[in-house]
Amino acid sequence: MDTSPGSASVPAPKTVLVVDDDDYVRDLIVDYLRARGLEAVEAENGLEALLKFRQARPQAVVLDILMPRLGGLRALQRIRSLDQGTAVIVVTGAMDTELRGQVLASGATAILTKPIHLKDLWAALGGPDGWAEEPGTVPALPSQPFLETTSVLGARVLVVDDDAGVRSLLEHALARHGYEVRSVADRQSALRAIREDSPEAVLLDLNLPGLSGVEALEAVHAITPGVKVIMMGGAVSFEVAKDTLARGAFDFVAKPFDMKALAHTLHEAVLMKRLEADWNVEPGG
């Protein structure tokens, strides 16, 4: 376990938000916390985490750093921008030194490495023997029908891919869904297009010539930090894709595309962009 300075003094929470896209890990942590008298709220991705964080206002968050629908690092930064006092326990697999430093600098209270020992999680939350309370009732959270019904007509999307066939496919498919679509073939054209008319979402190929997925993501975020970037790539790019999620990509979609899944992910990305604008959340790294 790696903790930031002062983590031992974390006050014991009553409500904990558990965010992990692995159902087994999430259920294990939730059951463990509820058995000790805490209210546990669940989220399976970064977008859902922010929505439920605003609803439940937990005193602590257990957050997987490798997350679809808003990367774990970006989710951590968003949570910190909403509430500086919430304890955030980051749970992760392998993490390089640079990313570990970014996680701590972004306000993580502690970092636990998978497979985690629940007693370490309990200690990181500030809960030795004395603070188990009566379980009480976990408040029912309202459904979010607007995730499916809110219109994104006219949302601006930029497609960045050196394959002309992919660009043509996405241009036509997304236009039928009501998006305003531009497409370019390389990094320089992408950065120029973003400067001219900042999009709400970018579909970015992981394997642009001469540029890694992480470098491309960082270049886009340097110009427009609030844009939602969805990485695209084949199965061989999965490890790189996980790294981009940790560093703030909204999601990863595999080629060849499942167009229904891609449309759903893009819809969520645009909604997240607009929700942040409504909440006046400052874009972060």
Explain what the structure shows.
With 285 residues, the chain is of the alpha/beta class. The chain has two domains: 2-131, Rossmann fold; 148-279, Response regulator (Rossmann fold, 3-Layer(aba) Sandwich), CATH 3.40.50.2300. Helix content is 42%, strand content 18%. It contains eleven helices and eleven strands. It has helices at 23-35, 46-56, 72-82, 97-105, 118-124, 146-149, 164-176, 187-196, 213-223, 238-246, 259-279, and strands at residues 2-3, 15-19, 39-43, 60-64, 87-92, 110-113, 156-160, 180-184, 201-205, 228-233, 251-254. Strands 1-6-5-4-2-3 form a six-stranded mixed β-sheet, sandwiched between helices. A five-stranded parallel β-sheet has the order 8-7-9-10-11, with helices on both faces. Helix 2 (46-56) packs parallel to helix 3 and helix 8 (187-196) runs parallel beside helix 9. The chain is elongated. Mean pLDDT is 80; it is low at 3-10 and 130-149.
